[in-house]
Design brief:
Layout: H1 5-50, E1 60-64, E2 69-74, E3 77-83, H2 100-104, E4 112-120, H3 121-125, E5 134-141, E6 147-151, H4 169-185, H5 193-196, H6 201-208
Helix pairs in contact: 1-4
Length: 228
C-alpha cells in the first residue's frame, strides 16, 4: 500500500526521535546510578573522616529511595536527588541555542535531567507535609554523555560550555560537593513577625501536630535564582 509523503515523514520522525530519546534516557539512568554510588561513597568517607570529632546525634546518611530517587542527610539538611523519567528539549530563548555544539546538531540539545532538592531533615522526620523545599541544582545529560549544570554555586560546566566535557565520576563529586556546601550555608531564617502573628485553631489541634506549622529555609522570603 502506498503511503503519503506526510505519513512517511511521521514514521521517520517516530523512528529517529524514539531512538534518540531512548539513548538520552539510558545515559541519564546510567549516570544516576553512578551518582548513587558516589553519594554512598562520599557519606562513608565523611563519616570516617569526622569520627570522634562530631556529635553522635548528627547524622550523615545515604538512602536509596528506588530507581529514580536517592537522599543524603547531612545533619539537619536533606538533599534529594531525583531523576526525571522524561527527556526534555529547551525553550527557544534558552542560552543553550547559542552554544556551537548544539548549533552544529540540534539533536545534541535533547537532555535527561537529575534534580537536586534541599529540604530540612525534620520535615520528613516529623511528617511536616506542608514544609517547603528548594530546587538548588539541575544536571543535564545528552545522548553523548555531555553535560552541563544549573543551580546554586554550580559552576563546573555551564550551558555555554556544553559539549566540552563528558560526565564522569570526578564531575559528579564536584557537583555533589557544591550542592552540599550550598545547603550547609543556606540557613533557616526566622519568618518575619508580621507574617507569623496569626495562627488558626486548626494549627493547634490534634495535640499540637507539628505538620500544621509550615517551615522552610526562606519561608516568606524571596528565593532568587541569582547564580543560575
Amino acid at each position: 500500500m502506498d503511503i503519503s509523503p506526510l505519513r512517511a515523514r511521521i514514521e521517520e520522525t517516530i523512528i529517529k526521535k524514539s531512538a534518540l530519546k531512548q539513548k538520552v534516557f539510558d545515559n541519564t539512568f546510567f549516570i544516576f546510578n553512578e551518582l548513587k554510588d558516589t553519594l554512598l561513597e562520599m557519606a562513608s568517607e565523611m563519616e570516617d573522616d569526622m569520627e570522634g570529632r562530631i556529635d553522635k546525634r548528627v547524622r550523615i546518611e545515604y538512602r536509596d529511595r528506588g530507581k529514580f530517587e536517592a537522599q543524603l542527610q547531612i545533619a539537619s539538611d536533606l538533599l534529594i536527588f531525583q531523576m526525571h523519567t522524561n527527556v526534555f528539549e529547551f525553550e527557544t530563548n534558552h542560552v543553550i541555542w547559542e552554544n556551537p555544539y548544539v548549533q552544529a546538531d540540534p539533536d545534541n540539545s535533547y537532555c535527561g535531567v537529575i534534580n537536586i532538592y534541599n529540604f530540612l531533615s525534620d520535615s520528613f522526620k516529623f511528617n511536616r507535609n506542608a514544609d517547603e523545599g528548594y530546587l538548588i541544582g539541575r544536571l543535564f545529560i545528552n545522548r553523548e554523555r555531555m553535560f552541563f549544570v544549573e543551580g546554586k554555586r554550580q559552576t563546573l560546566v555551564r550551558a555555554k560550555d556544553f559539549g566540552r566535557r563528558e560526565i564522569d565520576r570526578g564531575a559528579l563529586v564536584a557537583i555533589l560537593e557544591a550542592a552540599i556546601n550550598y545547603a550547609l550555608g543556606f540557613d533557616l531564617l526566622l519568618p518575619p513577625y508580621e507574617k507569623s502573628k496569626r495562627v488558626t485553631v486548626d494549627q493547634f489541634n490534634t495535640r499540637m501536630d507539628n505538620s500544621k506549622f509550615i517551615t522552610g529555609k526562606r519561608l516568606d522570603y524571596d528565593f532568587n535564582v541569582d547564580d543560575i
